[in-house]
Amino acid sequence: MAKKARTAITPTREENFPEWYQQVIKAADMAENSPVRGCMIVKPNGWAIWENMQRTFDVWLKEYGVQNASFPLLIPLEFMNREAEHVDGFATECAVVTHHRLEKDENGKLVPAGKLEEPYIVRPTSETIIGDSMSRWIQSYRDLPMKLNQWGNVMRWEMRTRMFLRTSEFFWHEGHCAFEDHDGATADCMHILDLYEKFFTEVMAFDGFKGVKTPDERFPGANETYAFEAMMQDGKALQAATTHDLGTTFAKGCNIKYQDRDGGEQFVHTTSWAFSTRAIGGMIMIHGDDDGLIMPPKLAAHQIVILPMVKDDNEAQVMGFAEKVAAALKAKGIRVLLDTREMRTPDKMWDAIKKGIPLRVEIGGREADAEQVSCVRRDLGRESKETLSVEAFVEKAEGLLQAVHDELLSRSRKFRDDNTHEGSSVQDLKDFFGAGKIGFMKVPVTLLDDPALEAVMKEYSLSTRCMPFADGGEKVIIAKAY
Amino acid sequence: MAKKARTAITPTREENFPEWYQQVIKAADMAENSPVRGCMIVKPNGWAIWENMQRTFDVWLKEYGVQNASFPLLIPLEFMNREAEHVDGFATECAVVTHHRLEKDENGKLVPAGKLEEPYIVRPTSETIIGDSMSRWIQSYRDLPMKLNQWGNVMRWEMRTRMFLRTSEFFWHEGHCAFEDHDGATADCMHILDLYEKFFTEVMAFDGFKGVKTPDERFPGANETYAFEAMMQDGKALQAATTHDLGTTFAKGCNIKYQDRDGGEQFVHTTSWAFSTRAIGGMIMIHGDDDGLIMPPKLAAHQIVILPMVKDDNEAQVMGFAEKVAAALKAKGIRVLLDTREMRTPDKMWDAIKKGIPLRVEIGGREADAEQVSCVRRDLGRESKETLSVEAFVEKAEGLLQAVHDELLSRSRKFRDDNTHEGSSVQDLKDFFGAGKIGFMKVPVTLLDDPALEAVMKEYSLSTRCMPFADGGEKVIIAKAY
């Protein structure tokens, strides 16, 4: 038996994908579980990714005319009663604030005191409280469209949690817009979904399927939900982002009316849309390998790591050269880490690999003498090593980063395509998922009416992911999902 | 009797300063009270200021080596019991989460369900939960210093609230650092306090007093608290930012130990520091006038507003010229608003004044013909109007913005100096505050031992603000405060 190549992550993806995922996060020092049930601590290496995501996407939202604002963390319980359909879908598990003070009991232990007349919930999403504001802010068609967005934290009391993918507290942006009519709302949903696609492909380097959700998978209260569904390396789906055409549901629940161009009174049409820290979980599961994380260069906190390999007699020379290379790269706007920690070089190298830094540059005495660098791509590994003059490398660095991006994106597309299968019957689904095959199965939407479908869906924990636009709405993707 | 000049804000500062403050916020469309007790909604015009504050200060923190991370919103009640001194100062009023589910009662009304075994509080500050992480993350002196920061929301259940100044939920950054020794912690407190001073003077355009707090005004659990105290136009103090030397208090409470350079085991020395959305309240009360907000140019969402004044026969010409001017300013990196709303020009003008946009440019047919602009500074008003060629204006615009900044800063310094009085006895305090005079009184610190002091402090609602560094710690500032 051939000796198995040693990998930096144990177990490998094939051995145990969920556990591999947790170990990648740990090895990359991105996040950890906290003492608060279901909540994670996002460590600097993880938070830097989210900051980069925010920074990039926020610019796009502002270009589209969206304004950021901030609405309260707490929502009066009464608001949740206003929109029955929404409540039924959401309100089951959430953090409820019932007291506003702590007092010491007879043993000196702090206990809740100051019971509130009306409890609050920590927002699981903000449609109701933003709708309440819109009802005051919108008077006339001149106030429309109103496009608001909030970057923040929300909380849903999750029973089974997994870092980034499903945590009680998570971070997102939530857009909430109001339009004169259905066409405006639909156009908004489509525009934002296109922005999401652009973001996932051009920044996070993965592709998926854009489409419309089946009615049972819609956001509570929505007329239509549109989604971007990506495929993980275990073949499961991850809903990376959604846009919701809320029709007049929330306008009616929150009484958001406007005077139209003819002087009549109308309900606005609202939308909401979001992506969250979940997308980071997707990025890990799409790009990572058995040596750990592979960061898409556009999101990486550090795009290039420089490892100086010094000996007693050349420290000044090597460090001086390494600093020169770092400065030249920084001058090009590249995010560079010069790793000067007191650590063995192999340890530093594996640290950089596990953190997924896209390009690794090694500089020792020989390189410093020759004014050269050796560069290795994280996505291609050791075999991609090439030695270049420092001028050539600095000139080529942006192109190399783009090449890493392109490779990751093209891998994700190939994986998605290779693992998306066509089916035409419930038996096809049974055969595919029953055999433990991984991936998506695309079937005609007419199959949704087949009475035999439900049992198979249940047996293999399947769900409908979306009806891809690319298929003209005639097919639906069925898969296991996160 | 001379007819009083009409002002955009009613009442004026002199007539009713607290009400003027609320009206300025309303007129500038910055924020409003929400249906959630004590929480505000920060509207786009207000949130843009906070975003600019974050963007600028975050860069400085990163330059200093601080890393951003994210810790849970909820804190286990048990954690609050770990640090008795801290708890006594803080835990009285906070939002307590006691349930994790909603259920419908017999009337179909949602009620709290799923009682938690151990309640959580919504973080009023994060020393305890970050300390818990530090106790796991810090092993050796090699892990030190550890400099962490979090941008986020916190909640303290305030009884009397005022937008930005004191709200139940507010927004801040909270830095939490650990050092090997007291010197490291002190140097950190001083460095950050200097950064705060730089931020307030160079970005927010106001000055204040840097100093150390008296023991009774320290943060709960701190060895020393250092503060930047600013003077509002009603003479009251606002603590704009603080840094805390926490000694080993939290290290002991959270068990944060490290192996020192000699192999021994030591407690770390921690610090924490923050400024919050409160500083926006201060900025309003320092710079605003009876026509509303005056924005420091470096924070203004829009630094220059262009008001095109069109007639039926020149709309294309005037708009074309206005767009050209806007483009030329944008090319210089200036944030420009071309106000094309369907509104009367005087209404647009007053809107720009009330929002405090630093420079207002008026462009009508005459200006378009002559390729000129008329420019008015918000801080100096109508009398500062000058007409310039477009080239001259574009060339001069950054200088004009800097001039507005300098004027605001110098006004704040003059006001502070004119209204800071020296006293030497309790009687001096009585005479000053008893006569209803506004401002700070600086007295020898030895006065703190005078038994007659307390009654006067109480009678006039005074507090010690800080012992300014500039006075070598020999004097203390006493004032009314927000």
The percentage helix of chain A is 25-40%
Give the number of helices of chain A.
14
Strand content of chain A: 25-35%
Span between N and C termini of chain A? 35 Å
Name the largest protein-protein interface in this structure: A-B, 61 and 61 residues
Mean pLDDT of chain A: 95
Report on the structure:
Two copies of one chain form a homodimer. Chain A has 482 residues and is of the alpha+beta class. The first copy, chain A, folds into three domains: 271 residues, BirA Bifunctional Protein, domain 2 (2-Layer Sandwich); 113 residues, Rossmann fold (3-Layer(aba) Sandwich), CATH 3.40.50.800; 60 residues. The first copy, chain A, contains 14 helices and 24 strands. In chain A, the strands form six sheets. In chain A, strands 3-7-8-14-11-10-9-23 form an eight-stranded mixed sheet, sandwiched between helices. A five-stranded mixed sheet of chain A has the order 16-15-17-18-19, with helices on both faces. Chain A has a four-stranded mixed sheet with strand order 20-21-24-22. In chain A, strand 12 and strand 13 form a beta hairpin. The first copy, chain A, is globular, with a radius of gyration of 26 Å. Strand 5 of chain A pairs antiparallel with strand 5 of chain B.
Summarize this, please?
Two copies of one chain form a homodimer. Chain A has 482 residues and is an alpha+beta fold.
